[in-house]
Amino acid sequence: MIQTQDLPVVPLPDKVENGKSAFEALKGLGFDDAITSIANGIVQFSFRLLICILVFYIGKFIIRKIYTLVQGIMINRKIDASLSTFVLSLIKIVLYFILIVTIVGILGIETSSFLALFASAGVAIGMALSGTLQNFAGGVLILLLKPYKVGDYIEAQGFAGTVKEIQIFHTLINTPDNKAIIIPNGGLSTGSINNYSFESYRRVDWSVGLSYGDDYPAAKAAILEILESDPRIVKRYIEDDIARRKEIADHDKAAAPAVVAEDVKESWWQRMKRRKKERKDALKEKIKEQTTFKEGLPVKKECPPFVALSQLADSSIVITVRAWVAASEYWGVYFDMNERFYKELPEKGFSFPFPQLDVHLADVPENLRIK
């Protein structure tokens, strides 16, 4: 039996750069000393490998717990699915990268050169994929700032449609004729976007042409009567229309068959979130009231139907008609009113003119007439 404590042991270096250094470390040793040093190195490496395995599984467990915790918070806060997926993926990648660097350091490999290699590779990849990284940065800004969300109808980069997906590098929209348009996020984050779904109410405009000689005051009264008869159009205040719709919804809900719901106890997190939202809404309302009072602005903005004579065209008088409706009912009201104007205005004695051209025939001498 070899007693290692009596032999001169030259351990292997902790950080071996190449095989030459290991050979130099063993050079000049006897057979027993070399075997002992190699055995000690193997034991030391095995111990480090065992620690790395334990660190890997412990770190994997911690990463999974952090991932689950962040995912639960995002679900409770009802954060957009696209943003949640991106943030969770980024968290997982960053945490696993830190775990791998830690394991490499435990094994004895120089982590500074390892990180420098990754940094150099990142610079090279960034230069090669500069446009892609711009789209990536644009996707991050869109997901964080939310100029639009899934389901909004937007117009950008010469295309208009409903947002179907918001990816990291591009946004997918569907046009009204069901074409799928993929727009890079780089241009969307730096360009102009017309979000038709951002506001809950929109103004509808019409141009009605009537013949010269028609009674304009009577035509104005007839158009206002048509607009007032449609319940979807705001009669005076948008706030009153919102309250009216809420009353109708509450009445329909009360008239619906009662559904027995389970008594779900509110968690402390949900209770805290609800109270925070109530305080935030109350503060926002108070700030709005103070600003309105300070600047002398009206509490409610009047948005009644508007009718005015806008043009005296070549063949007709052009009447501009405007009305405010809920954004979800914009196109329905627009097409319905076009149909009603075309049907009801002639019934009230008004006519829609055709383009007219007066032709005057002069007397032509007999010898110049075509026979």
Key terms for this structure?
3 domains, 8 strands, Alpha-Beta Plaits, 3-stranded antiparallel sheet, alpha+beta, Helix Hairpins, 5-stranded antiparallel sheet, SH3 type barrels, about 375 residues, disordered N terminus, about 15% strand, single chain, elongated
Q: Would you count the extended β strands for me?
A: 8
Runs in which pLDDT lies below 50 for 5 or more consecutive residues are: 1-19, 259-263
- Helices, by number, come to 10
pLDDT average, as an integer? 77
Principal-axes shape call: elongated
- How far apart lie the N and C ends? 139 Å
The order of strands across the largest sheet is 4-3-2-1-5
Walk me through this protein's architecture:
This protein has 371 residues and is α+β, with helices and mostly antiparallel strands. It has three domains: 4-128, Helix Hairpins (Orthogonal Bundle), CATH 1.10.287; 146-195, Roll (SH3 type barrels), CATH 2.30.30; 200-253 and 293-354, 2-Layer Sandwich (Alpha-Beta Plaits). Helix content is 53%, strand content 14%. The chain is built from ten helices and eight strands. The chain has helices at 19-26, 31-76, 81-107, 111-128, 130-145, 185-190, 216-228, 238-255, 268-295, 330-347; strands spanning 153-156, 159-166, 170-174, 180-184, 194-195, 201-210, 306-312, 317-326. The protein has a five-stranded antiparallel β-sheet. The chain has a three-stranded antiparallel β-sheet with strand order 6-8-7, covered by helices on one side. Helix 7 crosses helix 10. The longest helix is centred in the first third of the chain and has 46 residues, at 31-76. 11% of the residues are buried. Residues 1-19 and 259-263 have low confidence and may be disordered.
